[in-house]
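Hi, here's the filled form for the chain we discussed.

Project: internal
Contact: R.S.
Residues: 61
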Amino acid sequence: MNTPQLDGNWEVQKTKLKEKFAALTDNDILFAQYKNKEMLKKLQIQLGKTKEELLKIFKEI
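And the returned structure, exactly as it came back:
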């Protein structure tokens, strides 16, 4: 899996991410079609997580 799975309602997932990581802003998790790789890189930097850790978080929410 190269990109996060953004299945379902992105607004719900975005809210859950912001609840889990209070430091995230709307700009940090701005999702545009075909830009999820860029968003993932931004989250890696912002949260200090590896790609694998972030993919696991996306899978859990």
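Let me know if anything looks off before we file it.
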